[in-house]
Design a protein that fits this description.
heterodimer; A: 347 residues; mainly alpha; 6 helices; rod-shaped; B: 121 residues; alpha/beta; Rossmann fold; 5-stranded parallel sheet; 5 helices; 5 strands; 45% helix
C-alpha cells in the first residue's frame, strides 16, 4: 500500500505538470498558476512558523509546570517541618507536665502521710497532757498542804500567844510559816490556772484546728493531683493527635512526591516533541528544492522528469530514515532493561 | 553531597531533571551545551557523575566525552538522548561513556541507575 505522504507527493507532481503545461498553452493563466505555487510555499512558511510557535509555547508551559511543581513541593515540605516543630514542642510540654505531675504526686504523698504524723504527734501530745494534768493534781496537793500548813501556823500562833513572852519567837515563826503557806497556795492556784489554760489551748483549739487544716490540705492535694492527671491525659491525647497527623501528612507527602515525579517525567516529552518538530523543517526544505527543480525543468520545456520523479519518490523514505535515527521512546520502553536498544543500557 | 553535572540544550530537560535529582538529595550543576560544560570542568568543576545529551549546538555530546575524558579519567559519564544510531552509541562507549539512556527517562529509573553507577550516593 502506498504511503499517504508518497501519494501526496506524486499527486503534487502531476498537478504541477498540468499547471505548467497549461502555462505553456496560449491564453493560459500562468500567472495564477505560479501564484498557486507561491501560495503553497507561503503556506509552508506559515506552518513552520506556527510549529515553531507551538514548540515555544510548549517549552514555556513545561518550564512553568516544573517551576510550579517545585513550589508545591517546597510548600508541602514546609508543612511537614511546621508539624514536626509542633510535635517536638508538644513533647517538651508533655515532659514539663510529667515533671510537675511528679512534684504534685510527691506533695500528695507527703500530705497523705500527714495524718499519721499528726496522730503520732497527737499521741505524744496526749502523753504530755497527761503529764501536765498530773502536775495539776500536784498543785492540788500543794494547795492542800498549804492549807494544812496555814491551819498549823494559825494553831501555832494561838499556842504562841498562850505561851506569852516565851512564845513570841514562835509566834513570829508561825507568822512566817503562815505567810509561806499563803504564797504557796497562791502559786499553786496560778500554776493550776496556767495548766488548765494550756490544756484547753492544745486539746480544744490547736489540735482541732491543725486537723481541720490537714484535712483541707489533703483534699487540695487530691484535687491538684486530679487536675494534673487530666492535664497529663489531654496532652497524651494531643501528642497522639500530632503523631497521627504526622503519619497522615508524611503519607500524603510521599504520594505527592510520586505525583510530582510523574509530572516532571512528563515534562521531558516537551524536548522529544521539539526535536520531532525541528526535524520537519529539513524535510520541507528538501521537498521545496525538488519542487523548484521540477518547475524550472518544466518551464524550460524539458518534460523528461524521471530524475526529479526519483528524487521526489525518495523524499518520504529519506524523512522516515532520518526519523529512525532517533529512538522511538515507546519502542525503547518495550525492550528489557539493560538489553541493547533498551531505554537504559549500562556498559 | 553527590554532585551530578547535567548537560543538555533543552531548558525543559535541564529543569525537570535538576528538580527530580534535587528532590532525591543530589546537588546538580548544569550546562546548556558541550562548550559551556567543558569550560566549567576546566574551571575546576569535579562532579561525581556527568549526564549529557548527544545532539547539541557548538559541541555535541560525543566530542564532550572525548574532551572531558582527558581531564576526568574516572568520572562516570551517561548519555541521555533520542539518538538511536548504533555507530554513535559505539563511539560513545569507545570514548569512555558508562551508559546510554533514551529520552524520556523516568526519575525513578534515573535515580536507580545513578545509585548503580555510584554505589555510595
Amino acid at each position: 500500500m502506498t504511503h499517504p505522504r508518497t501519494s501526496f507527493v506524486a499527486w503534487l507532481m502531476r498537478w504541477l505538470r498540468r499547471c505548467l503545461r497549461r502555462a505553456d498553452s496560449p491564453g493560459a493563466g500562468s500567472a495564477a498558476d505560479c501564484a498557486a505555487v507561491t501560495g503553497l510555499r507561503s503556506l509552508d512558511q506559515q506552518m513552520v512558523t506556527q510549529l515553531g510557535r507551538a514548540v515555544g509555547l510548549s517549552e514555556q508551559s513545561a518550564l512553568q509546570l516544573v517551576s510550579e511543581v517545585s513550589g508545591l513541593r517546597v510548600l508541602s515540605s514546609r508543612l511537614v517541618d511546621y508539624l514536626a516543630h509542633a510535635h517536638k514542642q508538644s513533647e517538651a510540654m508533655q515532659g514539663g507536665i510529667e515533671q510537675n505531675s511528679l512534684i504534685v504526686k510527691e506533695l500528695a504523698t507527703f500530705v497523705q502521710t500527714l495524718p499519721q504524723q499528726i496522730a503520732q504527734e497527737r499521741d505524744q501530745l496526749k502523753l504530755l497532757m497527761r503529764e501536765v494534768k498530773s502536775l495539776a493534781e500536784m498543785t492540788d496537793s500543794i494547795r492542800a498542804i498549804a492549807r494544812q500548813t496555814e491551819i498549823l501556823a494559825i494553831n501555832a500562833a494561838i499556842e504562841a500567844a498562850r505561851a506569852g513572852e516565851s512564845g513570841r519567837g514562835f509566834a513570829v515563826l508561825a507568822g512566817e510559816v503562815r505567810r509561806l503557806a499563803t504564797q504557796s497556795n497562791e502559786s499553786a492556784v496560778k500554776i493550776n490556772r496556767d495548766i488548765t489554760r494550756l490544756v484547753n489551748t492544745v486539746e480544744v483549739n490547736y489540735s482541732g484546728e491543725f486537723e481541720a487544716r490537714t484535712r483541707h490540705n489533703e483534699a487540695e492535694a487530691e484535687r491538684l493531683g486530679g487536675l494534673t492527671r487530666q492535664l497529663d491525659e489531654s496532652y497524651v491525647d494531643m501528642r497522639q493527635f500530632y503523631s497521627m497527623l504526622m503519619t497522615a501528612i508524611t503519607q500524603h507527602n510521599t504520594e505527592l512526591d510520586h505525583g510530582i515525579g510523574l509530572l516532571l517525567d512528563t515534562a521531558q516529552y516537551q524536548d522529544v516533541f521539539k526535536q520531532i518538530v525541528d526535524r520537519v523543517q529539513p524535510a520541507i526544505d528538501s521537498r521545496n528544492v525538488v519542487l523548484a527543480d521540477l518547475i524550472a525543468r518544466l518551464r524550460a520545456g524539458q518534460h523528461d522528469t524521471a530524475e526529479i520523479d526519483a528524487r521526489a519518490a525518495a523524499l518520504t523514505p529519506d524523512y522516515l530514515a532520518a526519523e529512525a535515527l532517533h529512538r522511538d521512546p515507546d519502542a525503547a520502553a518495550a525492550v528489557a532493561p539493560g538489553a541493547p536498544g533498551a531505554r537504559i543500557e549500562l556498559f | 553531597m553527590t554532585t551530578i553535572f547535567l548537560v543538555d540544550d533543552s531548558a525543559t530537560m535541564l529543569m525537570s531533571l535538576k528538580t527530580t535529582l534535587e528532590i532525591s538529595g543530589f546537588k546538580v550543576e548544569t550546562a546548556g551545551d558541550g562548550e559551556q560544560a567543558l569550560a566549567k570542568v576546566k574551571n575546576g568543576l569535579k562532579p561525581e557523575l556527568i549526564i549529557t545529551d548527544i545532539n547539541m549546538p557548538k559541541m555535541d555530546g560525543i566530542e564532550l566525552i572525548r574532551q572531558v575524558r582527558k581531564l576526568l579519567r574516572f568520572t562516570p559519564i551517561l548519555t541521555l538522548t533520542t539518538e538511536s544510531q548504533q555507530a554513535k552509541r559505539d563511539e560513545a562507549k569507545k570514548l569512555g561513556a558508562s551508559g546510554w539512556m533514551v529520552k524520556p527517562v523516568s526519575g525513578a529509573d534515573l535515580v536507580k541507575v545513578i545509585r548503580q553507577v555510584l554505589p555510595g550516593a
